[in-house]
């Protein structure tokens, strides 16, 4: 299944966090299609029918958490894997390391305001993600906690 450009999935069980991220994404001067899901298991189910460009994945969710969902995503036999950005209120080195080990492309500590969310999203969309297939999980992307 080919990747759908500008399709983004937000997987987060906190409606406020989803709304902040959604608002920041919609402020971008791009045509985006955005799907929100409240859990890792719902994310896995929807990935059977769509191939997003980006997944913003919360770690602490009910049923299937972000780590479990990430592990499943990276085990899928897709030629064009989505860019997965782990989003959490935690800045724990353990969570960052585990995200890296499981194949996340970036780890972001959730910002505390919509203005900071906007800055984070602008930074993400300014990055060149085309080289990620050759170098999975560059450390500079994982260790940049954007506040």
Short description:
The chain has 147 residues and is of the alpha/beta class. Helix content is 38%, strand content 20%.
Structure report:
With 147 residues, the chain is of the alpha/beta class. The protein has a single domain, classed as 3-Layer(aba) Sandwich (Rossmann fold), CATH 3.40.50. The protein is built from six helices and five strands, in the order βαβαβαβαβαα. It has a five-stranded parallel sheet, sandwiched between helices. α4 links the parallel β4 (83-88) and β5 (106-109). α2 (40-46) runs parallel beside α3. It is globular and about 35 Å long. The protein starts with a strand and ends in a 5-residue tail after the last helix. The model is unreliable at 133-147 (pLDDT under 50).
Question: Descriptors for this entry?
Answer:
single chain, 147 residues, alpha/beta, Rossmann fold, disordered C terminus
Strand content: 15-25%
Provide the CATH superfamily. Response regulator
Mean pLDDT across residues: 85
The CATH topology annotation reads as: Rossmann fold
Q: What is the β-strand count?
A: 5
SSE ordering: EHEHEHEHEHH
Shape: globular
Query: Could you tell me how far the N terminus lies from the C terminus, measured between alpha carbons in angstroms?
Result: 35 Å
Q: In order across it, which strands form the biggest sheet?
A: 2-1-3-4-5
> Mind telling me the C-alpha Rg?
14 Å
Tally of individual helices: 6
* Count of the separate structural domains: 1
CATH C-level label: Alpha Beta
Unreliable segments of 5+ consecutive residues: 133-147
Largest sheet: 5 strands, parallel
Task: State the helical fraction.
Answer: 25-40%
Reported CATH architecture: 3-Layer(aba) Sandwich
* Helix and strand composition category: alpha/beta
